[in-house]
Design brief:
elongated; 159 residues; mainly alpha
């Protein structure tokens, strides 16, 4: 009995296995889903068969293609959401009436699409402990002197 293969050389079960793996299932779970092994089949056997199946070039290629397509779709959706947020914000800046729900929705969509990402720069220059201690002392002295100036009664500022 010959099983019909698709244009990529995969049987329906192999294609289903590839979709399951690309969807986030473990190889063993994907094998169980696609091939429906008997309940008495040992887990070690399922792991071995799933690993062999995944090692086939056409199966691995299909998994990689599905994952790449999903990543492109996510990127396109994020770009589309970013464009929507920026368009609405421009519209609102130019004077279109808005309410707080619209603004909040735009903010959340912007955060979700990465439009409003914070960029933090961390400088990890190599400094010896004495330099760090001197800087801390300088900052503390500055804060203490500012506090002392604020705590001086008003009558002393007048003289």
């Amino acid at each position: 009995m010959s099983v019909k293969k698709d244009q990529n050389g995969l049987t329906p079960k192999q294609a289903h296995f590839a979709r399951c793996v690309a969807g986030g299932m473990t190889q063993a779970d994907a094998y169980r889903e696609a091939y429906d092994p008997k309940p008495e089949t040992k887990p070690e056997t399922i792991h071995t068969l799933a690993s062999r199946l995944m090692a086939r070039a056409e199966v691995r290629s299909r998994v990689d293609a599905i994952i790449a397509a999903k990543e492109r779709a996510v990127a396109a959706s994020a770009l589309s959401d970013r464009d929507k947020v920026l368009s609405k914000l421009r519209e609102w800046v130019d004077g279109a009436p808005t309410d707080s729900n619209q603004l909040r929705a735009a903010e959340l969509l912007g955060k979700a699409s990465g439009t409003f990402t914070e960029r933090v720069s961390i400088n990890q220059g190599d400094r010896d402990p004495s330099e760090v201690a001197a800087e801390i002392e300088r900052i503390l002295a500055s804060v203490i002197s500012d506090d002392e100036k604020e705590n001086v009664p008003d009558s002393e500022h007048l003289h």
